Recover the amino acids of this structure.
């Protein structure tokens, strides 16, 4: 079976690729010519160069494939050019799904995000059916992922595609080479550079469990359905305390109001936009998102797919060990 994976050079995509290889899939991966390919080293894969907005390269990549795992996404909470996120996450998803359909790909797993799901008012875990609309999306990233999932659903209905949607929560673990926004939090905290925190919460899942959830969705998921692939709900204070215990540092004790941090986020974005050009550590959208705890339930995936997740402390420990080995944390 020849399987096409997009995003295999990235964090979640590389974990999915490793799981597929271990299962015996012949793997073809789509990679941009300028992409960082360290996550593909020592993996037996066929690389097709292209990008999600180049239809010719997508047709070439999908030709002869039996299945597609579309994991690639532009995961940034801030960009000086927000339209780039729309182009990659919405138009790019449409392009690759259509290319796969035209190539006769039989089964598709599309990687969405819990970012597109609703939030509960009482901070209880949300799930696949928690009410939500595009008006609830904060920032370009969440909006782009919401619109992308809506577009994939439209294509499923229009073309009768055998496509399953998965919604990972907050993956943590090895091979976060960029690193992702959450990976940056782990690096900064492990390095002793996060003396304070805001009152928020995340659902922490080991990236390898999330990857296994993709394969379970491929095996057992119902076409057109979506499944949360999550782990353990933790407050940010609990996460930072766990990181401090792992690295032997004193946990932060200063809790800052969201409104007190917001001016610093505005300044950080100004510096990023006019000086560095790089995503700031604190963003306005990120602070506004943090006003509600991002807690989720994987009950549906556990019941229908047999999905399981390990304790969050294991994910944090594996991430920190990898960051240490690769000198992100000294």
């Amino acid at each position: 079976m020849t399987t096409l994976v997009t995003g295999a050079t990235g964090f979640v995509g590389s974990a999915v690729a490793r799981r597929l290889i271990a299962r015996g899939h012949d793997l073809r991966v789509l990679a941009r010519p300028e992409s960082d390919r360290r996550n593909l080293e020592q993996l037996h894969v066929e690389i097709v160069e292209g990008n999600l907005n180049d239809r010719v390269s997508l047709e070439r990549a999908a030709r002869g494939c039996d299945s597609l795992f579309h994991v690639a996404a532009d995961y940034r909470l801030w960009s000086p050019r927000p339209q780039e996120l729309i182009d990659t996450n919405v138009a790019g998803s449409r392009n690759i799904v259509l290319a796969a359909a035209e190539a006769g790909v039989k089964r598709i797993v599309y990687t969405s995000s819990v970012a597109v799901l609703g939030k509960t008012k009482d901070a209880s875990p949300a799930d696949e059916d928690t009410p939500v609309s595009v008006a609830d999306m904060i920032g370009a990233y969440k909006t782009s992922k919401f619109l992308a999932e809506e577009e994939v659903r439209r294509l499923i209905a229009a073309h009768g595609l055998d496509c399953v949607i998965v919604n990972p929560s907050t993956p943590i673990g090895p091979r976060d080479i960029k690193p992702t926004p959450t990976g940056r939090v782990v690096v900064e905290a492990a390095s002793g550079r996060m003396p304070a925190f805001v009152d928020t919460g995340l659902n922490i899942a080991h990236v390898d469990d999330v990857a296994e959830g993709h394969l379970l969705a491929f095996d057992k998921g119902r076409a057109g359905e979506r499944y949360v692939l999550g782990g353990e709900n933790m407050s940010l204070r609990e996460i930072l305390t766990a990181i401090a215990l792992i690295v032997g540092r004193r946990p932060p004790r200063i809790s800052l109001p969201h409104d007190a941090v917001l001016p610093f986020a505005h300044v950080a974005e100004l510096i990023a936009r006019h000086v560095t050009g790089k995503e700031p550590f604190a963003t306005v959208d990120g602070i506004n998102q943090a006003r509600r705890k991002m807690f989720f339930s994987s009950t549906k995936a556990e019941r229908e797919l047999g999905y399981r997740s390990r304790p969050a402390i294991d994910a944090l420990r594996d991430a920190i060990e990898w960051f240490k080995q690769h000198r992100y944390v000294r």
The chain is about 45% helix and 15% strand. Residues 2-175+203-233 form a domain with the Rossmann fold fold (CATH 3.40.50.720).
